[in-house]
Amino acid sequence: MSLHVYNYLTRQKEPFEPLHRGRVMMYACGPTVYDHPHLGHAKTYVAMDVIVRYLRYSGYKVRYVQNITDVGHILDTGEDRIIKGARRERVEPMELVETYTRSYFEDMDALGVVRPDISPRASCHIIDQIEIIKVLLKKGYAYETPSGDVYFSVEKFPDYGKLSRRKLEDMIAGARVEVREEKRHPADFALWKHAEPEHILRWPSPWGVGYPGWHIECTAMSTKYLGETFDIHGGGVDNIFPHNECEIAQSEAATGKPFARYWLLTGSLTVDGVKMSKSLGNFLTIKDALKLYRPEALRFFVLSSHYRSPVDFSRDSLLAAERGVERLHNTVRALRARLQEAVPSAGTADLSYITDLDPHRDAFIEAMDDDFNTPKAIAALFDLNREVNNLLNSGRPLRRGTLAAIDRLYRDLGGKVLGLIPDDLSGEAGGEVLSGLMEIILDIRRQYRQAKDWERADDLRYRLSQLGIILEDHADGTSWRVERRIE
Ligand SMILES: [Zn+2]
User: Fold this and answer.
1) Which domains does the chain have, with CATH numbers?
2) In percent, how much of the chain has pLDDT > 70?
3) Cα of 342 from ligand 1 centre, angstroms
4) Residue 78: what pLDDT?
5) What is the radius of gyration, based on Cα positions, of the chain?
6) How far is the CA of 244 from the centre of ligand 1 (A)?
């Protein structure tokens, strides 16, 4: 089977055929940089990352564009997210944007998310946005109001609603009514807004001083770098309406051509079954999560569900992800240790075993070709892991070539594609010494506890915590973990 993807536009699984052979042009809506990224961002961008990685592994040359929204993202309350954040922190809006753009990439780097090929910023593409608005006005898809706003007229675009499958009649009921707005239809959306005197982010335009609406930036930046029609549009499913719907309308109205051909949208993230929000107090930034869990565990957690499914974050699911990653790393570490010991002259691989590897690769590829089914792909990796453990423990003499071939497979599937197995696990090799030491220390503490010497047992726990090593007592013993410190 070749790669098939679920296209949100058609609500169907379709064979993936890029516009230009061997080349994939892909866009994903990026973050609005007004605060530190949270776990929802981890879910969306790790999922997108694996799609990009797998396309590249399959031999496609991918151009991946992901924008930075640093202007124009207006909340339902009518406030501008960036300006609100700047007021909160008493800084210039562009200072805020710089801080949180850096923070975003810091976190994505930590999670092993491969950087986009182009990360265009909305504020650097104001002219491009103005040009598209001019075209829309000229073609009659947009209108200017007396106060200097420009709106897209949804009634002029019969396909409006085709991605989210909403009907125009239904949108009227749900639309926000603002007395001051001069819309012709309640679902019309802003392409350009005139700036009130207190609005700091402002630019001159043919319609007076103002700023672009949020949606138009994605049309401007995707078509500029990927072409008027391109292959994949990604992002979180939460943005499907109105944002993605508006992108399609303005783009197709302006160019007269189809916009993105495949829409791959990720499911959202909840915390203990509830939507994550600051007001509910269940808000977790990626930085805080990385203090508790290693980055591969966060990736493992995200990839254990299909990218289109919602995921629920809980402490138990993350601990399960930690254990999963540890099992893979332990085997790979043992494998690489054997590889180092293996005599170089015994270089040729054991062919009978190498052919045994093919079904594992095939199972992995089959899973990923089926709309990037990462849970199945991970299961294939664990099948391999089980077999490799048996092989390493079998006492059979293993040739260097055999070990190297297995290692290559791990590097490809677990490393290059899923990003769960670092190329260099030796940073954790010190971990073997640490594990041994912790075993000794926990043994001593167990003896204290058996002798009911709670004071000494607690003292030991306290001193370890000073080093960032956290002990947790369970019914069946004590576990420990290193609290990661990332400033
Ligand atoms: Zn967008």
Assistant:
1) 4-266 (3.40.50.620), 317-427 (1.20.120.640), 429-482 (no CATH)
2) 92
3) 52
4) 75
5) 26
6) 6
